[in-house]
Design a protein that fits this description.
The relative contact order is 0.22. This protein has five helices and five strands. By secondary structure, the protein is an alpha/beta fold. A hairpin with a 6-residue loop joins strand 2 and strand 3. The protein has a single domain, classed as YqgF/RNase H-like domain (Nucleotidyltransferase, domain 5, 2-Layer Sandwich). The two termini are about 15 Å apart. Helix 3 packs across helix 5. The chain is globular. The chain has a five-stranded mixed sheet with strand order 3-2-1-4-5, sandwiched between helices.
Length: about 140
């Protein structure tokens, strides 16, 4: 099953897609998101190309697991994406995905300035890979 992951951000939205077997997550170029309507249009174009069966959207919960103001925005966007795409869409806790992605990029010798354009989609790939690995473990 092909799955798309979305790491919603106010400046950039990271995206990643799994292979058809649901084994490996691959980051895709991030989408500028200062204009949410335009970002949604671009994301819908990606969805038409990638043809995922499911979309997961990272939910930024606080460390005490309570919702933040950003989590409310993400939840609203997730509903909007579900309606616009017609694809099953699910929120998943994205805690620490950006930290993990940053460490992985740093290990691959990407400096902080170079990470800016990569970090959001790398975080989406971390979120998606964790999701895929969890599915495999529960089978």
């Amino acid at each position: 099953m092909k799955i798309l992951a979305v790491d919603y951000g106010l400046a950039r939205t990271g995206i990643a897609v799994s292979d058809a077997t649901g084994t490996i997550a691959t980051p895709l170029p991030c989408i500028p998101s200062r204009n949410e309507d335009r970002m949604l249009e671009t994301l819908l174009d990606v969805i038409k190309t990638v043809k995922p069966e499911k979309i997961i959207v990272g939910l930024p919960l606080r460390t005490d697991m309570r919702q933040s103001e950003m989590a409310e925005k993400v939840s609203a966007f997730c509903e909007r994406l579900k309606e616009a795409s017609g694809i099953q869409t699910e929120l998943k806790n994205e805690m620490y995905t950006t930290v993990i992605a940053s460490k992985l990029l740093h290990q691959n010798e990407k400096k902080s300035k170079e990470q800016r354009g990569l970090i959001d989609s790398a975080a989406a790939a971390v979120l998606l890979q964790e999701y895929l690995d969890n599915i495999k473990q529960t089978k």
